[in-house]
Amino acid sequence: MSFLLPCPNCGPRDVNEFAYQGEVTTRPKESPTLRELTSYLYFRRNVAGVQREWWYHRHGCQAWFQAERDTRTNEVLLTELPRAPEGEGAPGAGATPAVGENPAV
Amino acid sequence: MRLAEQPRELLDRTQPVSVLFRGSPVPAFAGDSIGSALYGAGQRVFSRSFKYHRPRGLLCCSGHCANCMMTVDGVPNVRVCVEPVRNGVRVEPQNVRGSLENDLMAVTDKVGGPFTPVGFYYRTMIRPRRLWPLYEKFLRNAAGLGAVDKHAGRTRRFDTENRQVDTLVIGGGTAGLAAAREAASRGEHVVLVDEGPEPVAGQPCEVLAPARAIGIYEGNLVPVDAGPTLVRFRAGRIVVATGALEQPLLFPGNDLVGVMLPGGVRRLVDLWSLRPGKRAVVIAADEGSLGIVDELARGGTEVARVVDLRSERLGRIVARGRRGHLVRVELDGERIDCDLLVASGGRQPAYSLLAQVGARVEYDANRGIFVPTDLPEGIEAVGAVTGDVGDAAVPAATYNGAGTKGKCFACICEDVTDKDVKRAIAEGFDSIELAKRYTTVTMGPCQGKLCHLPSIRLYARETEAPEAEIGTTTARPPWTPVSLGVLAGRPHEPAKRTSMHHRHKDLGAKVMWTGAWRRPHSYGDPPAEAKAVHDSLGVIDVSTLGKLIVRGPDAAAFLERLYPNRYGDMKADRIRYGVLGTDGGRIMDDGTIARLDEDTFYVTTTSTGADTVIEWFEWWNAVWHLDVDVTNVTGALAAVNVAGPNARELMRRLTDLDVSNEALSYLDARRTHVAGAPTLILRIGFVGELGYELHFPSPFGVHVLDAILEQGADLGVRPFGLEPQRILRLEKQHILVGQDTDSESNALSASMPWIVKWDKDDFVGKWSLEQVRERGIYERLVGFELADAIPGVPLEGGQVVIGGRPGGRITSARWSPELGRVIGMAWVPPALARDGAEFAIKMNGGVEKARVRLSPFFDPEGGHLRS
Known about the structure:
The complex is a heterodimer of chains A (105) and B (867). With 105 residues, chain A is mainly β. In chain A, 9% of the residues lie in helices and 34% in strands. Chain A has one domain (4-83): Folate-binding superfamily (Folate-binding fold, 2-Layer Sandwich). In chain A, the strands form three sheets. Chain A has a four-stranded antiparallel beta sheet, with no helix packed on it. Chain B is an alpha+beta fold. Chain B has seven domains: 12-142, 2Fe-2S iron-sulphur cluster binding domain, sarcosine oxidase, alpha subunit, N-terminal domain (Ubiquitin-like (UB roll)), CATH 3.10.20.440; 156-241 and 348-391, FAD/NAD(P)-binding domain, CATH 3.50.50.60; 246-346, FAD/NAD(P)-binding domain; 408-488, Arc Repressor Mutant, subunit A; 500-543 and 636-743, Probable tRNA modification gtpase trme, domain 1 (Gyrase A, domain 2, 2-Layer Sandwich), CATH 3.30.1360; 545-634, Aminomethyltransferase beta-barrel domains (Alpha-Beta Plaits), CATH 3.30.70.1400; 776-867, Aminomethyltransferase beta-barrel domains (Elongation Factor Tu (Ef-tu), domain 3), CATH 2.40.30. Helix content of chain B is 21%, strand content 30%. Chain B is built from 23 helices and 46 strands. In chain B, helix 6 runs parallel beside helix 8 (292-298), helix 10 (418-426) packs across helix 12 (452-463) and helix 16 crosses helix 21 (722-731).
């Protein structure tokens, strides 16, 4: 893997400066069933195509941002800081994109 | 010995230097290569070949072929033809038994032929199987390149450099220079990479030389081997100007010492003012190669015969040698005595880098060369690499007439003869990719530079298929051989030290690694240090704890979402323990959280978890957008924990604050001055005794520690390290995340159900913990103790045995001097999680009995902590 990733703060930087944190997932709204919970925690779409995903500029500005990347070509179509949730967000409210099971390591 | 000064020579004749070749000094000048110095001193044999140990001499003089590889200052496989001389440099031949002139292994050339045909190692030496190690040892010694000195220390350092440029030009020939100049004139940032040794000076752009582009990778990444540094260029545009490579002709004896390519001869004369030979024959397929006649004349070499393959068709060329040195050439029966044969079959564009990035490679039947086309975006090619190599005759696949004796090499590096290729085809290796793998042609150090085209021509003739159909083998990086050190870069062993580190060493600390931190293991006597904490007073450096300030109107709400317990109801100046979990409910870190005021919390993490936790916090808030800031103050603040019955008396001496139990109770936090340093006092007790954790600016580290040791001298103060701390915390059954827990542990199984506040709306991990609560846990973390009389301490990670089968594992175990027995923690089936339950553990070569204890071994009521 070797490409440039445009950090929303720092501009195009070598991909080695970033930590990849997987697909952007959707956290269930409230009290999910076991099936909803496990698919949120463990199942990923794993698309061959454009995917929205999390990146962290670990060796740079240390910002979390989202990218749209074609997993087949590594072409990055878009990067942006995550948008604020719509409406007053009680914990877990709204179709808030959320991180998965794995800690940010 | 040297010619008169040549117009382009690189020598500085005012600066004589000396090369130590096999221990004897060889005179040279600054500007020489090691190869030119040896050649000037009369050395003609530079190496012994890979398989047959045939003598080999200079061939290309461009650092491409393997003929001049020697061990230089202990570094094997150095191409001495382009390696600059350094005064006193030690040069040794490699892959020889005896000397270059008399290599005992050369016997394989005389008698080994019938026994070592192509691929012989796939078919012979298979039985008996048990003898393979012997065979392998023999083969490895017999064939091969230089040996790495396993005992040599690190002699060189390598570095990696990352750079971005507008335009990267690879190759400093005429076309490359023009492209670089043109790009620079447009104001672009241009770097030109050239393999040297001829200087590329006076250019309006940066020149990196001698340096070699290893390949072109995704996203226009070009790693360049620039000696001790690997420069990773990321270029907007890449201009490939790698030129063309002279191709050898195939005829019997084409590897004899004295058979050279025109470019090699040109460099000997032009750059190093050497006489290449006494009497020469020239065979050339193009105009450029014929020009060598002028150099030979200037070099004082008599030219006996010139063959222009474009006008003169030869059927047969044979080079005859004596002891591996050329003495005569026979051209269709015409015998010419000579000691130099300059032979070239035309020039092949060096398209490899272009093919790596997806350019198509087409065969040009008129000129007998492969030409790159269809370059991808952002990649350009200029000069000879595009196929601009002029008119040339297409040489015959081989020039060995029927019945000619002598080996005719298709691949010089790997000692593959034309017969080997024919045999591979006869055996059914009917694709060029398969034949390449079977014969190893093009797989040697030159990476096909000198054998790719000739082997395809040979293949075409033998299979009667056109070259265009046969195609080429896949081009892959590295295009030039690279030493592993260049790829590995500088070894990074970052070490973090606290601001008190050197005082610990003064105090006799035994230092150990914990993650990237260097910490005192102990100060020589762990049991005594632990005892001092129980009996009087101890002090430990805990600066390594991760320290975060979480501040903002939403700070309390933020922490409530992240942790399973409550923070919103905390009063200022109070402390709570927190266990951080993932949304899968797994424990990832733990620490204490102090509320400093309405909007400000001071969060500590484990020593190795600081970076993970801050990333975790930021990640969630990237989604939540709560009004809160997280600041990492881990390095800015130092911390010590003073603990023991005398801790309050010590604090009384160090601060004006009222430190009575009523004024500063257990789990209170207070900001004040301690020993003059602005300090946050946290009254917590990881080690089980009355304790104060002091957090203050790092520069005060030694000052505060010294004050504690001085003021506490009559109170029996003693510094203690990690090992005694581990004993003390185990006595309290305080868990260490990562030691007692793993990636499957959750707060319920780790025996901390009290920390989960189920009535909270939501927190990270709540739903998973609810599932765990519903289905029950499979195992539980419990304390255990061994019956008093059992000697030894069980291994951490050791097995719990239940009914003769593995039923759990030990995570921590220590001898407690305070309790006088072995205590520990272990994961066991939930049915055993009751006081007094017994289970067996594997230790002392058998099993021993252990007893469960759910409450702390020491001070279960916590009276000491609260005293």
